[in-house]
Amino acid sequence: MIENLDDWKKAGQIAAKALDYGRKLVKPGTKLLEVAEKVEQKIIDLGGFPAFPVNIGLNDIAAHYTPTKNDETVFSDQLVKLDIGAHVNGAVGDNACTVDLSGRYADLVKASQEALDAAIKIVKEGATLGEIGKVIQDTIKARGFLPIVNLSGHGLDLYETHTEPTIPNVATGDDTELEEDEIIAIEPFATNGQGAIKESHHAEIFSIENEKNVRSSFARDVLREALEYNGLPIAKRWIKAKGLDFGLRELIKFNIAKEYPPLPEVGGGMISQAEHTLLVQKKGCMILTKLKE
Predict the structure, then answer these.
(1) pLDDT the model gives residue 132
(2) Can you tell me the distance from the alpha carbon of 246 to that of 215, in angstroms, rounded to the nearest whole number?
(3) Cα-flanking dihedrals φ and ψ of residue 273, to 5°?
(4) Euclidean distance between the first and final Cα of the chain, in Å?
(5) In 240-270, which positions are buried (b, 16+ CB within 10 angstroms) versus exposed (e)?
């Protein structure tokens, strides 16, 4: 039996409730920053902490965009990916959905959701990563779209949002088997573009990878504050220390911090996303982020 299962279950439910709450806030005219801040506060009000900044990907952005401190961007007719994580004592619940404010991409939204549902049906002890990837790929292609080949699902661990195993969204033939009591996030992305993402620029999310001595007072202040997040991803807007940009540049230069830039589709294609956190069991799985009524 997995240790701290109650924490994992609680984190999953907090993440699910926060996603349901956030989905209802995504409306034309509302600021992205308002949604992100309200959802992050909701997670805290429910008894958890954000496992990473609320990710809001518009149109061709798959992941890693979170609003800036003074972000004035508002929702209009975009295809919106909302990716939300909560943790309880380091145990992480991670889930995502897509909201189509344009009304033009219903089939694309269904492609990622149906791929997630199909993958969940075969998750159990002994299921292979290649089998899961093939089911995701086949389901998305059946809708006439492509999976994102260089994004994947992932394992979860205490204070770690991305660990082994890497769970592909395409058929890889990988015969690595899932093990009982593994906690994983399955995360299909579907697109009407070329089927891959690239790194962009202007990262608003970072994490601390190593703890080393630094020279400038700016870097020391940023590091001191960032260490409170136990290695989990951090939004720049969460940091109160002065000289954030200068200090963070030094931390990145010396491989103390790592940035996570937004990830657009290489051909500018629209992207949909769906995600759940699962506990692998002998004969199936428990969906930790399934919202309980």
Answers:
(1) 98
(2) 12
(3) -145, 145
(4) 26
(5) ebeebeebbbbbbeeebbebbbbbbbbeebb
User: Look-up: residue for tokens 């002890």?
Assistant: 125
Nearest to 153 by CA among 141, 135, 46: 135
Q: Which residues pair with 284 in a beta bridge?
A: 281
Catalytic (active site) residue 162 = yes
Q: Which of 213, 218, 290 is closest to 248 using CA atoms?
A: 218
| pLDDT(213) > 90 | no
Catalytic residue among 83, 100, 114, 204: 83
Closest CA to 288 of 181, 143, 209: 181
Biggest CA–CA distance in the chain, Å, is: 55
- Detail the DSSP E strand segments found in the chain: 49-50, 55-58, 61-63, 79-88, 91-100, 146-147, 152-157, 160-168, 183-186, 189-191, 205-208, 234-235, 257-259, 263-264, 271-273, 276-281, 284-287
d(CA 32, CA 178) in angstroms, rounded, equals 37
Read off the DSSP letter of residue 229.
G
Task: Check: CB of residue 163 under 8 Å from CB of residue 130.
Answer: no
Of the candidates 40, 154, 182, 265, the residue annotated as catalytic is 154
Concerning whether 154 is annotated as a catalytic residue, the answer is: yes
Residue of 7, 40, 60, 94 marked catalytic: 94
- DSSP letter string, 34-56: HHHHHHHHHHHHTT-EESSPPEE
Helix segments in 149-267, DSSP class H: 217-226, 244-253
pTM: 0.96
**Tens digit of pLDDT for each residue in 117-155?**
999 999 999 999 999 999 999 999 999 999 999 999 999
Q: At what angle do helices 217-226 and 244-253 cross, to 10 degrees?
A: 80
Provide the b/e sequence for 5-40 (b: ≥16 CB within 10 Å): eebbbbbbbbbbbbbebbbebbeeeeebbebbeebb
Active-site annotation holds for 87: no
